[in-house]
């Protein structure tokens, strides 16, 4: 088999592969013999079908399969051995002519190869990249304490509604007719829950001020929620179509007033957040909260570092020459249902991501980064821990986290994302030890503003 690779401009490659009879014949003969052993042809015992008949029946198709398999194997072997950094897959060249597989060949195949441009993303201690340390101040700790208090809170029954306390009401709703009487066959909802503080119109909201057990308030749900049919359907238990035409007044008989009370900062809260007897006083409680916040914010700082590193290297590498025509053909092949317009409108963004992908590949290779099963599992556990933390569960045992991580990993759709995250974690750690960090302290508010501006 003869392979010729031409790459005059470094990015547009042309590969010509010539397959001779001697390259494929032995494999074809073996495949035909195997087929003959299994062939079931009327009038012949198994394994006794004449080879001439076998060749007439399946000889050409077997040859096509063998040649295509050898073609793929040898092409990719050549690409690996010659360290050709190919983008996408080989594509048949427009000069390719149909091959007559009824003959013995030789068969010639011509492929276009999109080759990655050369670049240098080497990092040393002479490269400087910003690194933002986010301050963990009392304000952040107070917010976290308040969040834990809210999650540990409860509702107490009270006598009178106070809008400043964001009280919750429960009562019976009844639709009224034009004369202000209970409407026959009108909408009736028992034990309807309302939080008047969330009513959009102040005039309607004020009708509930000073409400007590047994109070009857007349209000108009449509006026209270003028632009939100979802609120009406939920409150009145009606469908969307009925909500569109609902303009009636309603009475609301208050049967219960509840006030939310935050949990106290005491041993019960300490145990709930960090586990029994892990924390004994408020000072230690706040210290452990600060440690948790610092760990979370370190991930944000690392993410910002990686985005800054990307920008730094993209600027340093400069403009790259890509095989635009070939890449657009590749995009079109992968998005046939979306058309050429999709390719043209998304090509620039795609090439931008490809540039970073190539830089990142070089960094990964230079730092000897490899991702193993344990790294992927660690990322899944980290995701599990973050998901539990969102619900205030910061003391979930490792056994539960690992079991939950295992269940996440069973979904193959998650694997690629976890692999990418594992690579990023290792890449951040490696490059932080290579470049010079221009460390800056910043508040969380200023950090978030900076990220939003980016």
TrEMBL record:
The keyword Isomerase applies. It is an enzyme of class 5 (isomerase). One of its GO terms (molecular function) is peptidyl-prolyl cis-trans isomerase activity. Keywords: Isomerase. InterPro entries: Trig_fac, Trigger_fac_C_sf, Trigger_fac_ribosome-bd_bac, Trigger_fac_ribosome-bd_sf, Trigger_fact/SurA_dom_sf. It comes from the Bacteria. Residues 1-147 form the Trigger factor ribosome-binding bacterial domain. The keyword Protein transport does not apply. Its EC number is 5.2.1.8. It holds the Pfam family Trigger_N. NCBIfam families: tig (TIGR00115). This is Trigger factor.
